[in-house]
Input
Amino acid sequence: MKIDVTRRQTQRTRPADKDLGFGKVFADHMFMMDHEPGKGWHSARVVPYGPLTLDPASAVFHYGQAMFEGLKAFRGKDDVVRIFRLDEHCKRLARGAERLCMPSPDLALLEDGIKTLVDVDRAWVPASVGTALYIRPTLIATEPFLGVRPSARHTFFVITSPVAAYYAEGLNPVKIWIEDTYVRASKGGLGAVKAGANYAASLLAAEEAKKRGYSQVLWLDAANHRDLEEVGTMNVFIRFNDEVATPALSGSILPGITRASVIDLLRSWGMNATERTITVDEIVERHKKGELLEVFGSGTAAVISPVGELGWHGQRMVLGDGNVGEVSRRLYEAITGIQYGTAKDEHGWLWEVPVARPNGASKKAQPAVARH
Ligand SMILES: *Cc1c(COP(=O)(O)O)cnc(C)c1O
Output
């Protein structure tokens, strides 16, 4: 499908890298397209960033048919702009749409829309180490109808936000509260989908954890409050001696792309990465025995987020004397090295954003390396 590009008349300037923060500054343009019966996806376009006009009866406002993705584009030292695992993010969006009874654009169109937008706003991809252009594709139900059934109209849009380095002062271990009352998601529910509803469900627990002096919560399974699921909005990994374990994808866990990358890297280093049930009792027991060496979260925003302390029923479990564990650090450096083009992309995770030529042809280059 042809993508129409309408540029802003005057380009704004991107703030200095140190003033970016996370998700509060938006680039000049957005990608949009619409879906309705008989027409399918149509009107793919890049337009100036700005407010949407929606009917107040739109299904998204009432029944929460909405989902999103989160991925990043990086500017390498060679000035080439590369998107990390674009194909996997698009596939996950398509699977999520199915679960929410929404139509997904086909993968080629999704990839093309995102690459075209990033190319148009190439000047918004910051360059200093740790910064990135965060990409937020979003799918919403827009039919103005209050009956409860899947919406017949949808809008897909992509906005982007230049973001500052997550760790301006180096990897920073956080304190995490193990949550035994609230749950994020249950088996059979929406936990495996990047649905806005999961975030709505998670906010109160995080607020209460903050009041107790913790930055986020470790979620347990909804049925028994026993099995580890995720940490905040990230997947969780535990290093017990020589094993690096993460909860198996059970239906209520979001299949993180950083999670998959971590598992691939650990295995490529000959380490024992496992996907299995991890109970809170095992955490407590093995911490007592000195076998709980590292805990960290994985996700697009922070890449790796080391945990320095776990709180559980009044007990404080301190990890690694508050220092960053060696596996956490090695993973962080390996993944960011690939993202910024300073390490070899052996797994074929980077997608170059080709530079559009004036005649509409573009320099051929994606994926950057053959995919496996
Ligand atoms: C997005 C997300 C993750 C991390 O996924 P990545 O693909 O690694 O960014 C983990 N858990 C939840 C709940 C998420 O929404």
